[in-house]
Amino acid sequence: MMIQVKDLYKSFGDLQVLKDINVEVKEQEVVCVIGPSGSGKSTFLRCLNLLEEVTSGEVWIEDENIADPSVNINQLRTKVGMVFQHFNLFPHKTVLENVTIGPIKVKGEAKEKADIEAVSLLEKVGLADKANDYPRSLSGGQKQRVAIARALAMNPRVMLFDEPTSALDPELVGDVLAVMKDLAKEGMTMVVVTHEMGFAREVGDRVIFMDEGYMIEEGDPEQIFNDPQHSRTQAFLSKIL
Ligand code: ADP
Ligand code: MG
């Protein structure tokens, strides 16, 4: 088991945002999380790498309960990579520097080694020719592929994606999804919050529907999309499909 979440609750002040979350993700599994805006999808992902503090419950990443205050956050973040909707690249660093900064600063890798690995990751996402460019000269889709390479540079055990294509022009979505699909094929364990139902169907091993802080229903993509059991899942899917 790569991820095990037990009785997770998360509140912001009086606002309970995650309630009674119990979920497991196996090694090499791709789990897609869908649901309406405000249902707690991002907060759930952020609890998996401690971008949010857990209010109660347990979040196990492999053999470590990260809800335990003694956990080493920097070490955890090398294990759990994250890709955001808005890329979050460093604007004053080149593409190559964006990818190497984590390995150099956090993992203490030598620059030469980090550079070699970064170039091969940029090749993998189809951007080797952009290594010396700055983010501002890239399209949104290219920026997002750099962000994926940057996360992969830490050699994570799990990758979290929070609506990675939602900010992109439609014609740029496909290249990013293709990179994610390749990663899945290589056996990366992935949790993907997405509105791309085609991706969830094709690449997802499992789909989870969230609403109002609860995981309402989960199942394999065929079942969730063709035969949703819960009325809230049915209502959500009828609006978007
Ligand atoms: P989703 O990603 O499904 O759109 P979020 O996890 O972003 O949902 O948000 C779930 C709820 O938590 C929303 O009501 C949102 O306003 C609230 N929320 C998220 N982050 C914070 C925060 N840092 N402080 C207060 N409320 C927050
Ligand atoms: Mg969100």
TrEMBL record:
One cellular-component annotation, GO: plasma membrane
Keyword terms of this UniProt record: Amino-acid transport, ATP-binding, Cell membrane, Membrane, Nucleotide-binding, Transport
Protein name as annotated: ABC-type polar amino acid transport system ATPase subunit
Positions in coiled-coil regions: none
InterPro entries: AAA+_ATPase, ABC_ATPase_HisP-typ, ABC_transporter-like_ATP-bd, ABC_transporter-like_CS, MetN_ABC_transporter-like, P-loop_NTPase
Gene3D superfamilies (alphabetical): P-loop containing nucleotide triphosphate hydrolases
Domain of life: Bacteria
A GO MF term: ATP binding
Cellular localisation: Cell membrane
Location, primary (coarse class): membrane
Species this protein is from: Texcoconibacillus texcoconensis
Family per similarity comment: Belongs to the ABC transporter superfamily.
Membrane-related topology note: Peripheral membrane protein
